[in-house]
C-alpha cells in the first residue's frame, strides 16, 4: 500500500517557496510551478503534478546507500490521490511502446528505492512519463546508475528531475485524455558537505541515441531554470556562506565523467 504523507493543492508561487521537504530536497524543493499543481510528498519522493500535461513538472528525491536495492516488479498504478481527470491510468499507455517506441519512464527511479518498503510508490503513474526507450535504457539509465554509485561513495545524494515541453510530440495512441508528452528531460544532482554545495545539471532530448553518454549532456543551472521556469536551491538565500560549485570537475568525475 502506498503511503502519502501530505498533499498541497493550488499553491501560490510565494507559498511554494516556503513549503519544502528537507528529507527529499537540499536547500529547498523547486519553486515556480503553476498554482493549480498538486504537491504530493511520499517517503520516497516529492512531486508537483500538473493537471494539464498529466505528468509531474518536477520530482525530487534523496538516494542513500540504504535506499538502494535490487530492482522490483513494475506494477503500474494510477496515483490514488489524484482525480481521474488529473492523471493517466495504466490503460492509457496501451500500445505506446509499439507505436511510439516509449517506455514508462520513472522520474524517481525504482532501483534507487527498492531497498525500502516504499518502492511500490515509484510505480505510481504520477512518477512516470512516456520516455523514449533508447533514452530510458541508455544515457538516462546510466546517469541514474552513476547517482547510485555516488551515493555508495558519498552518502546522501539529492536529485531533482522533470520534463521539458519545447516542441510538439506525438500523443499516446490509445487514450482520449488530453496530455502532453515531454520533448526532453532535465536532472540536477547535488551533494553537500564542508560548507559547500556540489551540483551538476543535465538535459537529455527524447531523441538521444541509446549509445549516448550522460557526460555529454551537461547543462548549466541558469539554462535549466530558464527552460523550466523553476527556481532551484532557493534556500541558499538564507545560507550566504555556502560555496556553490556547479558542474565542478570533481563531482563530474564522481558521476563517471572523466576530465579531458
What does it look like?
- The protein is of the alpha+beta class and 260 residues long.
- 17% of the residues lie in helices and 24% in strands.
- The protein has helices at 13-18, 96-100, 133-136, 139-154, 221-228, 249-254, and strands at 6-9, 38-41, 46-49, 56-63, 102-106, 128-132, 157-164, 184-193, 196-205, 243-246.
- The strands form two sheets. It has an eight-stranded mixed β-sheet, with helices on both faces.
- The termini are far apart.
Give a quick summary of the entry.
With 260 residues, the protein is an alpha+beta fold.
Defining key terms:
260 residues, alpha+beta, eight-stranded mixed sheet, 6 helices
Amino- and carboxy-terminal Cα gap: 47 Å
Structural class: alpha+beta
Largest sheet: 8 strands, mixed
Range of strand content: 15-25%
Shape: globular
**Order of H and E elements:** EHEEEHEEHHEEEHEH
Strand tally, please?
A: 10
Poorly predicted parts: 1-19
Please give the count of helices. Answer: 6
Mean pLDDT: 92
Indicate the percent of residues in helices.
Answer: 10-25%
Amino acid at each position: 500500500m502506498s503511503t502519502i504523507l501530505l498533499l498541497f493543492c493550488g499553491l501560490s508561487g510565494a507559498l511554494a517557496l516556503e513549503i519544502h521537504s528537507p528529507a527529499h530536497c537540499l536547500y529547498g524543493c523547486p519553486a515556480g510551478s503553476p498554482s493549480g499543481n498538486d504537491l504530493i510528498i511520499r517517503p520516497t519522493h516529492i512531486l508537483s503534478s500538473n493537471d494539464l500535461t498529466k505528468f509531474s513538472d518536477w520530482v525530487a528525491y534523496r538516494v542513500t546507500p540504504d535506499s538502494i536495492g535490487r530492482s522490483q516488479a513494475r506494477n503500474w498504478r494510477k496515483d490514488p490521490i489524484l482525480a481521474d481527470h488529473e492523471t493517466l491510468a495504466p490503460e492509457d499507455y496501451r500500445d505506446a511502446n509499439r507505436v511510439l517506441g516509449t517506455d514508462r519512464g520513472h522520474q524517481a527511479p525504482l532501483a534507487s528505492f527498492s531497498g525500502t518498503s516504499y518502492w511500490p510508490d515509484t510505480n505510481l503513474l504520477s512518477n512516470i512519463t512516456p520516455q523514449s526507450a533508447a533514452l530510458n535504457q541508455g544515457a538516462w539509465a546510466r546517469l541514474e546508475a552513476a547517482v547510485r554509485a555516488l551515493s555508495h561513495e558519498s552518502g546522501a545524494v539529492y536529485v531533482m528531475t522533470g520534463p521539458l515541453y519545447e516542441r510538439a510530440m506525438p500523443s499516446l495512441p490509445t487514450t482520449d485524455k488530453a496530455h502532453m508528452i515531454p520533448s526532453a528531460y532535465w536532472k540536477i544532482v547535488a551533494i553537500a558537505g564542508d560548507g559547500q554545495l556540489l551540483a551538476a545539471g543535465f538535459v537529455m532530448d527524447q531523441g538521444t541515441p541509446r549509445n549516448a553518454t550522460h557526460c555529454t549532456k551537461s547543462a548549466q543551472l541558469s539554462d535549466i531554470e530558464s527552460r523550466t521556469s523553476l527556481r532551484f536551491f532557493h534556500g541558499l538565500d538564507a545560507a550566504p556562506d555556502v560555496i556553490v560549485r556547479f558542474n565542478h570537475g570533481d563531482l563530474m568525475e564522481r558521476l563517471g565523467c572523466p576530465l579531458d
